[in-house]
Amino acid sequence: MGERYNAYKPVISRLTTWNNLNHSTNDSGISSNSSDFTYYSGSNTTKTPQMGKRHDIGRYVMKYQLNNPLTALSSSPDQTRVIVAGSSVLKILNVSDKEITEESNLNVRHGNRNSNITDVKWGNSFTKSKVATAATTGSISIWDVGNGQPKSEQKISAHERVVNRVCFNPMQGNYLLSASHDGAIRLWDLRDLNQTTANITFEGKCESVRDVQFNSGLTFGNEFAAAFENGTIQKWDLRKPNIYERRLNAHVGPVLAIDWNSDGKTIASGGRDKTIKIWDMGGAYSTKPKETIYSMSSVARVQWRPNNPSEVASCSLQGDNRIFVWNIKRPYIASFFFEEHVDVPTGFLWHESDILWSCSKDRFFIQQDIRDSHRQLDLLSKCAIGWNVYDQIAFAIEKSNDPHSEEQNKSIPSSSQSRFKPKPSVIEPRSEDHYQLQQKVGSISLPPFDPKSFSHLARNYISSGADIWTMCDHNAKVAWDVQRYRTAQTWKIVQLLYGKKASAEMDKTESNKDKGGSEESSLKDKDLSSATHSKSSSEAKDTDSLKDPDNDEDLYPTDPESESESESDEKPCPKHKRIQTPASITNTIVLPKFNRSSWDKEPMMTQLLDYYAEQGDVQMCVTLILVLGDKLKISEERAEQWFFSYIDLLHRFQLWCAATSVIKYCNNTAVGMLNQVFFLLVF
Which regions are flagged for Polar residues bias (predicted)? Predict the structure, then answer.
């Protein structure tokens, strides 16, 4: 007799921990530790500690321990008894609402201790009092368990190699299918007690058949499906034994388990490739699955949950002691899972829609309730927010159960809503195609960012290979082309402050003043003149002009409110009547005579970088650093942050050449390592 566990008990908390090391019992076999809330009895009450394993007991869990590891189980048609099988184990257990008791031990009664059973099935209809077991020796044993005195009724030498699975016909219980490692599927008529050969042999043209299941959704039960070692699934008809009706290349590697849905058209398969796939076997032929669920380990068993046609349960082949229940419309996370076993489950079945029976290598048969399961979805936040490269915000918010919540949202004053000019677009998921989310999702588009201008500037800016004057002049023209007039103005200022040609032109301007020459002729520049001719009159209308280089307010308005009042910081001021181009901007600057080499330009550049950083324009910050190099003093950490942000944007817009150029000419060690990392990933 094994140990009998009665877990019907009052509990205070959801889970109670059973400490195997400190567990003790009194003479009557009842636990002396009242905090366990578990009563058990039997001849052997000594527990073997499972080192490094947790052993929690839920409120609705009942356990029964056997002497050896278990490999399979099957329930009686009335769902009151279960037969468990394994290495030298074959027992019938009675499962009631309060306890699990042993009814009979078939191995002890018939001296069949040495058999290693791989699968067991309880019959139905005409064979409801019979049990079939499959063994590693290739034999099938038929047991009569109807009158309370189980006896071995028939033994068939069915296959040459191990029998992986047996299955009773759901409509005609006297028919039994067997699938073996020898690649054959055989049909047996159990009404003939003296048969030595199968009635029908189905050749799958493969080395090993891992699973076989009758289609229980059909009226006559003539169809069955088989899973093969080579990753295929075959659909057969008993009336056409010569060739299969359909063949699917289902998995990469062996298909270890299959199960028909109650609709009779859909089949679930699990394989060593760590996936569960859902196939339509009744409609038009398709080589692609309807849904694919990605597990963390190889899938050993799959079974649809009763009365829940969208949920399927699975257990692992090795390395995972949990039984997962998946919703096929939400395949990336399990709806809930059980983890009462401390070793890999080897078999399970649904006793009811909410109650699961399972057995494991840990020698336990366990009844588990869905109320004791771990619900991963309850631990996830239903609110989220994210950005994309086009300055759009995607959001998900939890639906409220309050029916008046939407009315409250509609009653919000319009003044509070006016702050958010972009109107969010809310998307309702279609329940027939997707998992019914308890969320509302949508997106908001923010207008300030222009991806086309960003990409144009990234492709055409130059930050190396020329002197500062030439680079600033070129970048000003590029910014002018995309109507970034304030940016073009900034490049002209940097050109005058740091460019070498600026000093020569200013000296020439002063000498021409002394000689009575005109200011316009003295400041003529060929490059800027050519840029002037390339601009249309419409572009020349929207320009800014510099009045006084000593007046910071004229160069850069520092008041953010004054800038936000206009739709764009690049639009011209209405009081400027003169049409100006990049060349005329320089021509209108009246510079006082001063020694620029002794002038501290660092505060101005710091203010300039702060301005663009507050605007979120890391492109301008990074390009200024690359152009000016050592002439610009800035914190290394701050510059590194700008570089990484700009490079990330370039990668998102797939501007690979521009990103590589930025990394190449950056003096920061951490940024320079990015090219080396990319090289290692590629080669």
Answer: 410-419
